[in-house]
Fold each of these.
Amino acid sequence: MQIKGATALVSGANRGLGRAFAQALLQAGAAKVYAGARDPSRVTDPGVIPVALDITDPNAVIATARECSDVTLLINNAGVMWMSPFIAAPSMEAARDEMMTNYFGTLYMCRAFSPVLGANGGGALVNMLSVVSWFTHPMNGSYCASKAAERALTDGLRLELAEQGTLVVGVYASFIETDMAAVLDVPKTSADAIARSAIEGVANKQYEVFADARSAEIKAALARDADAFYAGLARKS
Ligand SMILES: NC(=O)c1ccc[n+]([C@@H]2O[C@H](COP(=O)([O-])OP(=O)(O)OC[C@H]3O[C@@H](n4cnc5c(N)ncnc54)[C@H](OP(=O)(O)O)[C@@H]3O)[C@@H](O)[C@H]2O)c1
């Protein structure tokens, strides 16, 4: 997929990785970048077009797809993570919100924008996934479940949209320097580096992008011996 000249839409583009995606797309030569945000007044970077977008509101998502009918590259970046375990969580609220945003919200976006991408020649649809799309960590189990569901969506869409020529890319990353992982004192990769690596993967028509070194290591460790991987997690938690 050629980024130069593309018309992109990034969800959750007012801060964090989404903001980095929007800037990296402009640097890579995208002709137009819609910056989707729940509060578009918080999109302040020059060069992007702020668009009101709450991905959990299906009617608003459909309206945005009508408004942005020239999109050729969709980046589903918006997401939430409430650091909530399955059993010890005080209620189901976090689990519902994570599934509603990360899975159903992304699905609303994919359903609304797939015809747009198809009408514009195929284009590309990118879902921002995580290493916890592959395994579940006890500290944020319900987030892991939602990112695993989003991975299943990504892999299914790739087959479903092949006929219309849409490239479907899953981007995997470990910890990123954004608000989402701010409470964790662990090594992280900058949002700029993740965005650049993801866009390079899209340009190279990769189905899966391991956007940092840690994601490639975790993928290999799980393939080698998943039992040993989980035993390591159990020892640390
Ligand atoms: N940070 C990490 O370590 C990490 C690692 C792997 C993958 N990821 C994934 O990377 C993506 C970006 O995360 P981030 O680290 O940039 O998180 P972040 O700093 O918390 O930013 C999340 C963004 O998503 C937006 N958002 C949340 N719910 C939304 C909704 N219903 N509709 C529209 N926008 C919504 C937020 O908007 P508001 O400002 O309105 O809240 C914000 O712009 C997520 O999909 C996340 O799962 C993150």
Amino acid sequence: MVVLVTGANGQLGQAIQSVVGNYPSIDFVFCSSVELNITDKSNCETIFEKHKPQFCINAAAYTAVDKAESEPEKAYVINVTGAQNLAAVCKLNNTILLHVSTDFVFDGLATQPYSEEAIPNPTSVYGVTKLQGEQAIQNTWKKHFIIRTSWVYSQFANNFMKTMIRLASERDSLSVVSDQIGTPTNAVDLAECLLTIITFDIRHSTFDHYGIYNYSNEGQCSWYDFAKEIFKVNNISINLQHIPTTAYPTPAKRPVYSVLDKSKIKQVFGIEIKSWKESLKTIML
Ligand SMILES: NC(=O)c1ccc[n+]([C@@H]2O[C@H](COP(=O)([O-])OP(=O)(O)OC[C@H]3O[C@@H](n4cnc5c(N)ncnc54)[C@H](OP(=O)(O)O)[C@@H]3O)[C@@H](O)[C@H]2O)c1
């Protein structure tokens, strides 16, 4: 079985690379943005023609949430045109597409975890383009899984955990917002989740569970709680203050609450999910 991974040098791409040893029966083809530019359809066609993958994991995206506010066209071409190109090429090759999306498709006004059926209402350019990317896939190719996830961190690439640890080495005190609530997701857990779906017997003719799924670690916290736990786990002592979002204005408006309901993915694929605190402890820096 051939699984092609786009955006291979990003955080999720590297996390997938870190677990390939658990899947000896899969031939992985990892493509960086240089080898496969998802905004170039003919590039996608050539790569698919060469490797003939049964599955494609799209780990490529425009993820600079704040920068997207000032370069919406760039975010659109990667998150929407790129997703559409992959869906079209997957259709041409009967390849099952696993695409990763975000809790930022929601406005954050809910008071209980968002199910897959909740109505999206993004509040940022990034969120809008990620939602449009989902819709482009849905309108193009039935055999897709769209996995919405949140607050992804790991030992790879840039993320909140690594930023906190870097800032703690540069400063004596740090202020982090405490009124945005969500769930951290260890990128390695997300990688294992995607590969659990792939190794599930979905090519069986009776399988009809394509569509949107939520996945994050279990539990919920604020960015402040997350930072506090990161410092605790890494034995870092720092004066950590909690502040409201209003004290840390950013170009992009983020959802105040974006906890995802994972019942569907647990029920359909039998996926067991670690709590965010438990998973954070597994990261060795
Ligand atoms: N990080 C989070 O907190 C978070 C939260 C929720 C959802 N997600 C979603 O999770 C997925 C993975 O995110 P991540 O954290 O791994 O992001 P990331 O570290 O920013 O990685 C994205 C990768 O996409 C590549 N890329 C950009 N434009 C491309 C193009 N035109 N063609 C091919 N590759 C391209 C980048 O390559 P270059 O570096 O060479 O440009 C980079 O390697 C994304 O879909 C993201 O929206 C992330």
